[in-house]
Amino acid sequence: MQVSSLNEVKIYSLSAGRSLPEWLSDRKKRALQKKDVDIRRRIELIQDFEMPTISTKIKVSRDGQYIMAVGTYKPRIRCFDTYQLSQKFERCLDSEVVTFEILSDDYSKIVFLQCDRFVEFHSQHGHYYRTRIPKFGRDFSYHYPSCDLYFVAASSEVYRLNLEQGRFLNSLQTDASENSVCDINPTHFLFAAGTAEGKVECWDPRTRNRVGLLDCALSSVTADTEIDGLPSISALKFNGALNMAVGTSTGQVLLYDLRSSNPLIIKDHQYGLPIKSIQFQHQLDLIISADSRIIKMWNKDTGKIFTSMEPEHDINDVCLYPNSGMLMTANEAPKMNIYYMPVLGPAPKWCSFLDNLTEELEENPESTVYDDYKFVTRKDLENLGLAHLIGSSLLRAYMHGFFMDIRLYHKAKMMANPFAYEEYRREKIRQKIEETRAQRVQLKKLPKVNKELALKLIEEEEDQQATRKRKQKNLPSLLKDDRFKVMFENPDFQVDEQSEEFRLLNPLVSKISEKRKKKLKILEEKEKEAQEQEEEPEGKPSDAESSESSDDEKGWVEEVRKQRKLLRQEEKVKRQERFKEDQQTLLKPQFFEIKEGEEFRSFKDSAKKQKLMKKTLGDRLKLEEKLGTLSVSDTTVGSKQATFKLKKSEQQKKQQEAEKQHRQERKTLRRSAGHLKSKRGRGQRFH
């Protein structure tokens, strides 16, 4: 929990601190809480009070039990039960929500205005009905006496949807090109709509006639304000029967009395950002206005600043919990912030323990400013050899380190590093030498790998800079690009200039490389001289570069021919070396094992097969007809029919012979058995 104070107003940030990921098990969460002090000391007022990426709107139900927030991604609404201090339900939607309204006292009736012109109704069980408005909606308000929903959109009309009859009514025609925000007075139900031209039109819902027009754009422009364009209305809020606050897109808040066309107070946020939200705090007569960067609280009578808050992330919406000092914000971050200010009011009933907690903190205040003390971190203590003092009275824990007596710090530093002054003196001398060296001509530092390629890139950059116009932007350098850093560091990327591809693709590289090699030698010599001598003697003339002109196309052709001749000669030499190696090697016979059941055939069979494969299909068919393995016959339809006879292997022949012998043996057995039966029958008849 972070505590900040401005104008002697203490603000307790209840959502400060790191949040644990959802996928962690309870056991790991408990282990982290034991190890990490920050996690142990954090206050999680409502469990998982956050969105996946960002939250756009946040509201509290009229009974104060439910907090509802919408956000992305994916578009969803989350409802949190304050009595259980946890999430009650979550519903995903088809598109992002522009704004929403809770019609009932609890979460049973909700209306969503979505960015794709759809209006979605939810009941207690979930999605109930969906309809569409003609233009893209910006805001809407609910008129309780007539059960009408008033929608302002990117058009001059204000659409009315009656929830009792379930149909659209005649729309209100305004003078604006586009309406941005709207609100209905809770006392006399006056409808007000803010326009893109910086005006507020007030309508009576009973007669459907316009009863007033306020030009807020002209009133917001004063002698001190600087604006680039016409300010439009970005926020609107009624307070009681007569007061109305208007926020503009240029960062001004105007407080009006409905009986006058001139504003009572004009408050400028000084940031030039559109006002996102306006809330009224009745106990102290404060107005809470917020843009995307800051939340300001100021007195509505005098305009004096009461306090302000600047969260880390941009603000999308602000919600003041009724009759309490709690403030909630929807931000451009997953976590939704919760602030508690005891000055504004007591803590809500469901978190009454906050009052006791803040009272204890105020009774035992921790001083944050120390005289004659030095702030050190844990690493500094380890370097000084004072890590064993952690937990003693000599060190006082504060934030991410400790406060210790400045005298003890100086003594420990002198003992740990007695030559600190000498090191400081050497460092100063080194800095002065570097300053003098910077005035001289600086040498080009080339990488260890692909030096010639780096030199080529440097020359091309210098040529481009000389020919490029002033207005054109500087192109990025390959040497400074992180994507190509490995090419000049890893020796595996070294360019092989002796390879065939390199020599054929770069025929002129030999002549150009000679120039670069000379430059490289010059640069290496200069680097050696700079390393050997601390100070370079002045007056040395720089080596003049050779001004040899590059060859024309004839020279290029000759160079290509030379490279090809050289490559052919190298290939001949390699062939001769291979031939000599083959002659020297002795060939030894190799033996192969034949599988069981197979017989060795001569290598002539494979040669015959290869010859057959070279012949055409017709020749092969004729040959197979002669051998008897193929028979071709004409059919009745007119086509030809070919039947093949596969050659039988020796194993198949042996199996067929064994089967024939087995059949013959069975026949003989059957015949002998038949003769015996006939003899026995004759003997019985004789007896």
Give structural attributes.
WD40/YVTN_repeat-like_dom_sf, Methylamine Dehydrogenase, Chain H, 30% helix, 687 residues, coiled coil, nucleus, Beta-prop_NOL10_N, repeat, alpha+beta
Describe the structure.
About 30% of the residues lie in helices and about 30% in strands. It is an alpha+beta fold. Among the domains are: about 1-365, Methylamine Dehydrogenase, Chain H (7 Propeller), CATH 2.130.10; about 375-415, no CATH class. A hairpin with a 3-residue loop joins strand 8 (about 110-115) and strand 9 (about 120). The protein is extended and about 125 Å long. Residues about 535-550 have low confidence and may be disordered. It comes from Nothocercus julius. Belongs to the WD repeat NOL10/ENP2 family.
Topology record:
Layout: E1 2-6, E2 9-13, H1 26-35, H2 37-41, E3 54-60, E4 66-72, E5 76-81, E6 86-92, E7 97-102, E8 110-114, E9 118-122, E10 127-132, E11 137-143, E12 148-153, E13 157-162, E14 167-173, E15 179-184, E16 191-195, E17 199-204, E18 209-215, H3 216-220, E19 233-239, E20 243-248, E21 252-257, E22 265-268, E23 277-281, E24 286-290, E25 295-299, E26 305-309, E27 315-320, E28 326-331, E29 337-340, H4 353-363, E30 373-377, H5 378-384, E31 396-398, E32 401-405, H6 406-416, H7 420-438, H8 451-467, H9 500-505, H10 509-532, H11 553-584, H12 604-614, H13 617-627, E33 630-634, E34 640-644, H14 650-686
Antiparallel strand pairs: 1-2, 2-29, 3-4, 4-5, 5-6, 7-8, 8-9, 9-10, 11-12, 12-13, 13-14, 15-16, 16-17, 17-18, 19-20, 20-21, 21-22, 23-24, 24-25, 25-26, 27-28, 28-29, 30-32, 31-32, 33-34
